[in-house]
From TrEMBL:
GO terms for cellular component: plasma membrane. Its main location: membrane. Belongs to the SURF1 family. The chain crosses the membrane at residues 220-240. It is a multi-pass membrane protein. Residues 191-212 are annotated as: Disordered. This is SURF1-like protein. Keywords: Cell membrane, Membrane, Transmembrane, Transmembrane helix. It holds the Pfam family SURF1. CDD domains: SURF1. It comes from Streptomyces murinus.
Length: 265
């Protein structure tokens, strides 16, 4: 066993400890990526299912005080009523598909039974000051039928957007049906609609694109990568061990200089 005595050297003790520590760490990272892959795949499936489901009247899925669930989010809903443009607000710091910063236009939509649906009509550009209320193209006048995606109320915890106070008149940071019910003094359906039809005349406000899919295959690739790294650690350790033994054997087999003879240069 003297040939393995070098394993007790400080260099090899440290190398072995590091290798032993890396293997479970890499395996754990692989499982973490596996969970991310499963979560993202499940979300993509849920979003696709919601987007392709048959449209339903909004009041079939939501009511005043209702919290929109994961399975209800992105469902296509329809509503018939009248836009109350005098009570329109704009949602600050929202971007369009090009990354330009502007506003989302939020207008109450009065239903026939007295309830109100908050409708995000789309994106408009902001002026330099972002203090004056912007000029907003008018929606269809009178009684009309609209459709769009049902969305959950926005919160700071979910979006990371701070709900700032002291904003200019009729400007808000988050879309929240409870706060809108207090502002309007009316029963507001939980959540809100991202309008997709009818298309605004002149293309303004810009309609909000369908939610994109998360890159689940990337997490799957990372999972495989971490597990391959974990498998490579003992293989690499064994390769270094064999090389060390070979180097020692070659050094032992090399002819030794006779006493009094100069060593070969």
């Amino acid at each position: 066993m003297h040939r393995y005595r070098f394993l007790l050297s400080l260099q090899w003790v440290i190398l072995t400890i590091v290798a032993i520590a890396l293997i479970p760490t890499m395996i754990k990272l692989g499982f973490w990526q596996k969970h991310r892959y499963e979560e993202r795949t499940a979300r993509n499936d849920l979003v696709a299912s919601a987007l392709h489901a048959e449209p339903v009247p909004v009041e079939r899925l939501s009511s005043p005080g209702h919290a929109v669930t994961r399975t209800e989010k992105y469902r296509t809903v329809t509503a018939t009523g009248t836009f109350d443009t005098a009570k329109t607000e704009v949602v600050r710091r929202r971007t369009n598909d090009n990354g330009d910063v502007g506003y989302h236009v939020l207008t109450p939509f009065d239903l026939a039974d007295g309830k109100v649906l908050m409708v995000n009509r789309g994106w408009i550009a902001a002026d330099a000051s972002q203090t004056a209320f912007p000029k907003i193209p008018a929606p269809p006048a009178g009684r009309t039928t609209i459709s769009g995606r049902l969305m959950a109320d926005e919160t700071t915890a979910a979006s990371g957007i701070k709900n700032l106070k002291g904003l200019p008149d009729r400007q808000i940071m988050l879309i929240n049906s409870t706060e809108e019910a207090h502002r309007l003094g009316a029963p507001v359906l939980g959540g809100y609609m991202e309008q997709t039809a009818p298309t605004p005349k002149g293309g303004s406000p810009e309609q909000i694109s369908d939610p994109g899919t998360e890159d689940a295959p990337l997490n799957y690739a990372y999972m495989i990568q971490w597990w391959l790294f974990a498998a490579a650690v003992p293989v690499g350790w064994w390769f270094l061990l064999r090389r060390e033994i070979r180097d020692q054997e070659e050094a032992a087999a090399a002819p030794q200089p006779q006493e009094g003879e100069p060593a070969a240069v």
